[in-house]
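Subject: Interface between my chains keeps coming out wrong

I've been trying for a while to get a sensible model of this assembly. When I model each chain on its own everything looks fine, but I need the whole thing in one frame so I can look at the contacts. Pasting all components below, labels as-is. Any help appreciated, I'm running out of ideas.
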Amino acid sequence: MTTPMSLPDPIAQGVADGWRVLDGASRQQDLQLHCDVLIIGTGAGGGMTAEVLAQAGLDVLMVEEGALRTSRDFRLLEAKAYPELYQEAASRKTADKGINILQGRTVGGSTTVNWTSAFRTPADTLNWWGERYGLHGLNPQAMTPWFDMAEARLGIADWQTDPNPNNSVLEQGCQALGLRHGRIRRNVRGCWNLGYCGMGCATNAKQSMLVTTIPAALQHKAGLLARARVERLLPTADGKALQGAEGVLLAADGHSLTGRRFRVSAGHVVLAAGSIGTPAILLRSGLADSHVGQRTFLHPVAICGAVMPQRIEAYNGAPQTVYSDHFMHTQPLDGPLGYKLEVPPVHPLLVGVTLSGFGQQTASLMQQLPHLHVMLALLRDGFHPDSQGGVVRLRADGSPELDYPLNDVLWDGVRRSWLTMAELQFAAGARQVQVIHEQAPLLSSWKETREMIAGLALKPLLARLVSAHVMGGAAMSSQPDSGVVDEYGRHWTLRNLSIIDGSIFPTSIGANPQLSIYAFALRAAHQLRAALKA
Amino acid sequence: MLGLPGLPVNDIVRGVDVAISNLLPAIQQELRQLFDLLANRWARRWLAGVRKPWAQATESELTAFLRSWQHSPLLLLRSAYQALHALINAAWFGNPASWSAMGYQQPPQIMSLLP
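Reply #2:
Try treating it as a single job with all components included. I did that and got this:
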């Protein structure tokens, strides 16, 4: 086999060959467009829906706020990737700035930048939705064919390569302490095991929407309008349906307005702008009932760092391949918050802004970057009666903001997860451990660390919390008055509006959500296709 | 803030400017208020506890200022500290000039194949 001189970029090639792709930044005039189905957002929900509907011969138009960036733009460079591919340059925050949110903003949405972890929706989550919310049609057995279909479409399979050393620390710690753990399945084909998934996949191995369903939809004559922000949905005169949507075209910097507008008239509208984005559009349109924006969940993540005696190079290799759900099952689902353990890729910019402290202390830790191991605990929010998530609201300029108050039940989970992570890291041979909290020192023994954690103040912006999983905010329900849409994403009052994205989940998922969104989107899109073709 | 001697300060300042330019207008406005506040000599003296103009402040004065905001009982001051921390660290650690001291490099097997 010979080494290629350069990497192929099939998406750029497709555009060059005449796919119907418009860039809002380059339009000299206002745009008026028509289609059968307008899909707002091109992430996990919008991407899946676009392929299903376009293959059925429907005239589909996708509108995306972010730009179309393809593999030739992905240079394994954080300083380029974060502003180009993420909401608010990867620094989106909750209203009190207590939680930093990583969320995609590019064609493909978060699937273009996620870390390729694929879990089916846990059975206890689906069963809870049946018992608690009357969503009995979504039981694990009924959902199985949709998970199968999504996995087949996106190459989701066991990852055969050994975990990288960062993941091995989690595995070894679990083995030493006798905690249940497993390997993570991934949505990749021909993965080079580089570890830069979060900056966009330069080799097109990651089976994101960008390289799978979106090009398939474009191949079936769907259209794509990028750098176009939907401001509002346009209701019909009787207020019972939508005519379409309108918005503004964004300049090449991705943020400034060009002064040009667009308007799309559509037979059916699919809102797939993600949690935060979808509720924001409904709020801006004056079409939000009392449920819209409520119960938005984050899987808030607590973090613990460790200096290992051996080189870890947590920036190299598939980022997430080992997990532990041990502490998801040690208490009732609606009891003290359970947490999932994973590890993140550790690249200089992101770790530099995430580590606590400043000055010499940070400098000496950063100089040990190749030995740095980082562990994450993702807290399962939305099940405990006091875990109600956050609320999406609009700023004066119409941009959305998530107010996610941090309360006792969450902090209790944070402290327990710090104890678990530190104990695991020492059990795996860590030389030193540092909870990511402004008052936590780097310590060399588990005993000292345990005592220190017991005394840490539980306050926002002392404890570092992050999130990469935004869910809920436009929940599905079994009855019209208890949610925004039904179990197929059909809006309870606007007859030609569907919501097909992560915002329909009535609680958090309790696992990395991409595969849940894919499966629910496929289910909703097939129902919609049948209805529109009837 | 970074605790390292001999850094290319102008490059870092430029990196901070670029980082700010990529934020939402609403967030840029908040940062504008923060920098206006820090530039006000009364605020510098009473909120930051730094007597001399910023360019003449000693390392220990700056450390005391950062530490007091980092641990402040007021959420607003803690968030101001975090904003400075994130901007400066992003500007430096996102700059390839910072990488060799950390022993970090991008995977060589692919870099030569990129456009």
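Reply #3:
Confirming on my end. Chain A touches chain B through 54 residues (CB under 8 Å).
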